Amino acid sequence: MSDGHGRTPETPPGWSAEQPPPYSAPQASPWTAPGSPPQAPYGQPYEPQGEAPQPPPYGPPGPQQPYPQSGYPQPGPGHPPPGYQPPGYGYMPPPALRPGIIPLRPLGLGDILDGTIKLIRSNPKAVLGLSAVAALLSAVPLAVGQAILFGSMGNMLEDPESASASLNSFYGLIAQYGGMFVSYVIQFVVVTVLTGVLTRILGRAVFGGNITAAEAWHLSKGRLPALFGVVGLMAVMMIVPLAVLVLVVAALAMSVNSADGAGLILGVVVLFLLAFVPYYLFITTRFAFAAPAVVLEGRGPIDAMRRSWHLVTGDFWRVLGILLLTSLLVGVVSGVLSVPFSFGGTLIGMLGGGSPGSAVVAAVFIAVGGTLSAMFSYPFQAGVSGLLYADRRMRGEAFDLVLQTAAIEQQRQGWVHASADELWHPSNSARS
């Protein structure tokens, strides 16, 4: 049913179901007989053949009047007439199509950050709701462990010489590190799942379509094993150097005496950290697009990591700079959101005298701060990574042409079909 302007109820404002694709030539009349004179565009008839042209209504043209003499150069082969502008002067290219959160052309830093914010604003229930659940699941164990530690520290401050205070402090440390370990395990699982779901939402949002959290989960759950494979392989790449460091430090501690060994061990640790930081940045940058390749292209873990390596090649430093800037922005905003709650929970836990009530309140404060922080950081980092992936495909594979063609067809139809997800397959690249 139409609303009188050619739109159906599902047609977004400004789109018309009967509107032809832009930039197309006017359609020729299907009733033109073979051999007949061509039809003039926009309904203007041609002159009949064989008749003399009509004279102009204002008489025959007179002789050309010369240009007025002045001190300026007169028009000629090297001097255009006054007021003439050379071709292209002041020309503004038409804006790129933007049916969704980004313009369908290679992206700049501002486009990526703006598109990430629009991703969150365009579908807040799915994006922020899922992020809040994931953040809460990973924040609760850590908050409980820290609250127990703060309670034990309160007992130690009241009577630092008692054996029970030392025992409570030992139990508090175990609770803190145990909660941290559980939190990291949960975070590994929920962040991996969340990355897959948010990437699927982003893939549809590029075309201006919104999907629910349930639909996004249904579309992405089949890719979770491959996604866990990518995250597991990257974790192994990070853990192996740390394991080597532990073995080297243990061997040095057993082979040298305590007086000379401390300085040597400290020097080895410092050198390792200086080498590990570039290694970490290199690995995370080279495989930053593995998760989008798994979810949107349907690749396996090894193939997705190989695909990410290929996409980053030729633009490594730009990708690294944008990822570092994103981490800095996320860190600042997350700190602003979490520090007041964490500070309040710390004071309550330490000054509450170890009472159960103060421990519970401290845990709630710390959990709220961690949830707010992660609820913003998870979708923002996933959005930047996904849009960087789209930008690299547009720059390296002319993928923007594929997106523009699909957007024009969707504009003509007046809605975004679920088959838009299939456009991310590499077989649809213009230079595949």
Quick summary:
The chain contains 11 helices and no strands. It is mostly helical.
Strand content: under 5%
Tell me the span between the first and last alpha carbons.
41 Å
- Radius of gyration from the CA trace? 33 Å
Quickly give the structural class.
mainly alpha
In N-to-C order, the SSE pattern is HHHHHHHHHHH
Q: Oligomer, anyone?
A: single chain
Count the strands? 0
Total individual domains: 1
Number of helical segments with 4 or more residues: 11
Catalogue the unreliable spans. Answer: 1-52, 67-73
Tell me about the largest β-sheet. Answer: none
Shape type: globular
User: What is the helical fraction, as a range of percent?
Assistant: 55-70%
Overall pLDDT level = 75
Tell me what the structure shows.
Keywords: Membrane, Transmembrane, Transmembrane helix. Residues 53-66, 74-85 have a biased composition (Pro residues). This is Glycerophosphoryl diester phosphodiesterase membrane domain-containing protein. Pfam families: DUF7847 (PF25231). The chain crosses the membrane at residues 127-150, 170-194, 227-256, 262-282, 316-339, 359-389. This protein has one domain (109-428). The longest helix is centred in the middle third of the chain and has 43 residues, at 163-205. It has 432 residues and is mainly alpha-helical. Helix content is 63%, strand content 0%.
